[in-house]
Amino acid sequence: MSLHADAARVLKEWAPPVAAPDQEQLRLAYLEHLAGHPDGMWKSCGEGHITASALVVDPAHGTVLLTLHRKLRMWLQMGGHCEPADPALAGAALREATEESGVTGLALLPGGPVRLDRHLTPCAWHLDVQYAAIAPPGAVEAISDESLDLRWFRYDEVPSVADESVVRLVARVRELL
User: Fold this and answer.
1) DSSP 121
2) How far are the Cα atoms of 53, 58, 67, 94, 118 from residue 26, in angstroms, in the given order?
3) pLDDT per residue over 15-33, tens digit each?
């Protein structure tokens, strides 16, 4: 199965939270985007592209690991563009989380994506499919070339450092833990 087909399957099967009607609207918009753009998974798609991200969480300590993104200069979850070698959308999210955090042994929270978020970036619209990745005990982070900094934040600290998209992602992940 191609990455494009996997993303369409994931989005068709994903049941957004009932209390968040915007999530169903985004799910349908993402599916429409994929139906109209055979290249809709790739950065080269100027109309926008599906991206994959994962919030790295340490539930035992009530913390999340955020990256100070080198280009955007914002505290964000790990994530970004899909690559041709990615076997599946979830795999792309896990790859991005591992590469950008340096943490080995991450495991995606079961159940598929936790949220969707559409945002404009310098390259195009990102149609982000957001997962949660659970950090193993004793996880040690390592800054990648894409980060200016990495830092663990308590759940209640996130609103003071990150934008509303990250705050909503943290809130949703906490509901699922």
Assistant:
1) -
2) 16, 28, 25, 22, 8
3) 998 888 899 999 999 999 9
DSSP 142-157: ---TTEEEEEEEEGGG
Our CA dihedral for 141, 76, 3, 48, rounded to 10 degrees, sits at -150
Distance CA 125, CA 14 (A): 21
Specify the amino acid at residue 176.
L
Q: In this structure, what token pair is assigned to residue 103?
A: 């943490």
User: CA 64 to CA 44: how far, in whole Å?
Assistant: 31
Task: List phi, psi (to 5°) of 67.
Answer: -110, 140
How many whole angstroms separate alpha carbon 120 and alpha carbon 90?
22
CA nearest neighbour of 76 among 142, 170, 144, 140: 170
User: Over pLDDT 70: what percentage of the chain?
Assistant: 100
pLDDT digits (tens, 9 = 90+) for 92-107: 999 999 999 999 999 9
Backbone φ, ψ for residue 100 (5° rounding): -80, -25
Three-state DSSP class for 116? strand
Cα separations (Å) of 55 from 29, 31, 44, 171?
A: 23, 23, 25, 11
